[in-house]
Amino acid sequence: MLGGTTEARQLAARLAMRPDIAATLSLAGRTIAPLTQPVPVRTGGFGGVEGLATYLAEHGIDRLIDATHPFAARISANAVAAARLARVPLLRLERPAWTMVPGDRWRPVSSVAAAVAALGTGPRRAFLALGRQELGPFEDAPQHAYLVRSVDPVEPPLAVPHASYVLGRGPFREEDDRALFETHGIDAVVAKNSGGEATYGKIAAARALGIEVFLIGRPTLPPAEIATDVEAALGWIDRGGTHEAASATVAAERGL
């Protein structure tokens, strides 16, 4: 399993109870203190497509599940290519994207840079729910005051006059995010359309408070067989099993 998401952890927990399956969870290693996992874990990259294909062959992997974050475009593309090269069946465990409901004030944008531009020239108080490595473009808009939430500390901090930081790991409740936004006077939210329940609190809180959400759309990924939940992924593993003991690698490289 290529992992790092809530779904990868949930699937790993289910597979850990199966004596007929030997599961390995692969993590990118970007989080300083990742959560304890119920199956054996490997950490770090594979060295591109050929490195992942070699790993699959050398470890006798006969099922590959890409349960990475919906925005982990590179590892997902590598997984498709490596699975084809190693002739290993691939499933992408991909949570559905969020969709607008009445009351939402969404401004769809294509990238972090586009979100920075869409915030405008006038000063705003923006909540940033993005990975630490994606915050750099906001330094080009120092007129805004930023509240940044991340799993690990942002080091170095943003080179802007007004930035605050809060550490947190999902799931986040709507009522908590609403209180956070009210305390800091937030009038804009910048987030990815990650989908799922764990981080939906900020979307619901923004809707309740009438706050504008600059929502970054998902990247286009190579075609692959897709399961939208853990139960469907388990069904795929069982339908494809041809050995007495199946070996599944669930790859969820990144997730907030």
Keywords for this entry:
256 residues; Rossmann fold; 6-stranded parallel beta sheet; disordered C terminus; 22% strand; elongated; alpha/beta
Topology (SSEs and partners):
Elements: H1 6-16, E1 21-27, E2 41-43, H2 48-58, E3 63-66, H3 73-86, E4 90-93, E5 106-109, H4 112-118, E6 125-129, E7 145-150, E8 163-167, H5 174-184, E9 188-192, H6 201-209, E10 212-216, E11 225-227, H7 230-240, E12 246-251
Parallel strand pairs: 1-2, 1-12, 3-4, 4-11, 5-10, 6-7, 6-9, 7-8, 9-10
Helix pairs in contact: 1-7, 2-3, 5-6
Protein model, in words:
The chain has helices spanning 6-16, 48-58, 73-86, 112-118, 174-184, 201-209, 230-240; strands spanning 21-27, 41-43, 63-66, 90-93, 106-109, 125-129, 145-150, 163-167, 188-192, 212-216, 225-227, 246-251. The chain has 256 residues and is α/β, with parallel strands linked by helices. It has two domains: 6-96 and 220-251, Rossmann fold (3-Layer(aba) Sandwich), CATH 3.40.50; 106-216, Rossmann fold. β3, α3 and β4 form a beta-alpha-beta unit. α1 crosses α7 (230-240) and α5 crosses α6 (201-209). Mean pLDDT is 90; it is low at 241-248 and 250-256.
